[in-house]
Specification:
The protein is built from 12 helices and no strands. By secondary structure, the chain is mainly α. It has one domain. The longest helix has 27 residues. It is globular and about 45 Å long.
């Protein structure tokens, strides 16, 4: 059941990415993030109230750093989605677990086993192939990679927050703080949006929240390595969306790079499985 939930979560996140690309660069990134947060908050608040969970987080100082990294990651990811092919942006984004393993020793003192370095190296070669084998890497590709790094850092801080707070409480507080911060410059210069852009933005908030809830439940039901492997299904759906709606088809070398990223990620999952990692909420 957990695998099915993660497949549905991955489909939700891939759909969210396609909707962001559909909105286009006309809507400022910060405005889109602001709306993504505030439109999703009623859903998450309703879930918290229904479950009788607290709405205020305990580790507030860690939350501030998690929010800073999370905001940077969202700005990078949203920019990449609107300035490069959908599948390529998602491919690079899937390098996040590999970058997480690289950052873990520095940020939380967690060292990966030696066998994990093969997985990390394999995935990073895949990233280089997608960004461009001729080394003429586009700005959007660099931004996508930076977004994956920021996301990895935010994920590591979420691990620390998980010691004191429930995952849904963490997500709710992150969205509140992000919405408040972005409102300081979005509200005074709010850009008018078409009906279609409002509809797509509502879809972004809906599928982002749905994906978060499904992913949280998946991690609650099964061991993290087993569930994490299913997350790579978003790669397949992103290719399908890109082809159907924008006529985008990644180059063969990009497919090869994506294969290396997925292979590296699955190798990392296997390493974590062998160390008998317990189920973890995220």
């Amino acid at each position: 059941m957990a695998i099915i939930l993660m497949l549905l979560a991955s489909a939700s996140f891939a759909t969210m990415a396609a909707l962001i690309k559909g909105i286009g660069p006309e809507v400022p990134l910060s405005q889109l993030i602001f709306l993504r947060c505030w439109l999703a908050l009623p859903v998450l608040l309703g879930v918290l109230v229904a479950k009788g969970m607290p709405v205020m987080i305990r580790a507030r100082q860690v939350l501030i750093w998690r929010t800073a990294l999370g905001m940077a990651a969202m700005h990078c990811f949203f920019y990449a989605l609107t300035h490069m092919p959908l599948a390529d942006a998602v491919f690079i984004g899937r390098a996040q677990p590999l970058l997480l393993a690289l950052l873990a020793p520095v940020m939380i003192g967690e060292h990966a086993p030696k066998s994990a370095w093969l997985a990390i190296g394999t995935g990073l070669v895949g990233v280089a192939l997608i960004m461009n084998p001729s080394l003429h890497w586009s700005l959007a590709a660099w931004v996508a990679l930076a977004g994956a790094a920021f996301s990895a850092g935010a994920h590591l801080l979420v691990r620390r927050l998980n010691r004191t707070d429930a995952p849904l409480v963490i997500v709710f507080n992150f969205l509140v703080l992000t919405g408040l911060v972005t409102s300081t410059w979005v509200v005074p210069s709010f850009v008018a949006m078409s009906a279609g852009q409002w509809l797509f933005t509502g879809g972004v908030a809906l599928f982002a929240s749905l994906g978060q809830l499904l992913m949280t439940e998946a991690y609650r039901r099964d061991r993290a390595p087993a569930v994490a492997a299913a997350a790579y299904s978003s790669v397949i759906l992103s290719v399908l969306y890109g082809y159907l709606f924008w006529g985008e088809l990644p180059l063969p070398i990009a497919f090869g790079g994506a294969g290396l990223i997925v292979a590296g990620g699955l190798l990392l999952v296997l390493v974590r499985w062998r160390v008998s990692e317990p189920a973890e909420q995220k």
